[in-house]
Amino acid sequence: MLPGWQEADGAHIAALHVDLAPGWKTYWRAPGEGGIPPLFDWSGSENLKSVGFIWPAPEVFDNSGYRTIGYKGGMTLPMRLVPIDPSKPITIRGQVDMGVCEEICMPVTLPFSAALPMNGPRDPAIAAAMASRPFTRAEAKVQDVDCDIEPTDRGLALNAVVDMPPTGVIENAVVEVRNPRIWVDPAVNQRDGNKLHISADLSSISGGAMMVDRSAITLTVLGSDYAVEIQGCD
């Protein structure tokens, strides 16, 4: 755990740093087919109100027709920790469950513990990881996002048209709905000039009815030149 520094508003910037053996990889928050996203347990922490993650742009891996998304060789995952009392330091204790993969993928559990210094210096490794996050909608010059959601015999079909410049020769789109009870199939994308068409099927894990909050939909475009993250689907 990289202890990081305290911001002017009292929040603390720290990071989980994971080194992996050559050829091994771990996964992004939306890991793709067969991947395991990191899951954190903060239950032993002190003076900790909330945690927000700043995800660096991941890579897309194709293995025998299956697409997974993550980081090769390791990752530095910055996080913004909000204290209950900004005048006191935060102590974090807990564990992270995550998947690691070479030829065979396996889950691992890593315990962590750190007292975060209130006057720590800025860490270049954390700053570099924060700088590698996907561009925002404004930074990527996204002009418009139009989403249609229609019922199907399996659930719902989401079709989005994003007006934005190409992010590289190769582009992969990811759709997230921020609802663990909804399964999102791998997205399919196709470009027509400055219009990127993204489609994905949504289904309820329980098999029942479901409701999708458009403001909670995240569209991420992972291009060979840069990545873009779009919050909300109009």
UniProtKB/TrEMBL annotation:
InterPro entries: DsbDN. It comes from the Bacteria. Pfam families: DsbD_N. Residues 8-109 form the Thiol:disulfide interchange protein DsbD N-terminal domain. This is Thiol:disulfide interchange protein DsbD N-terminal domain-containing protein. It comes from Donghicola mangrovi.
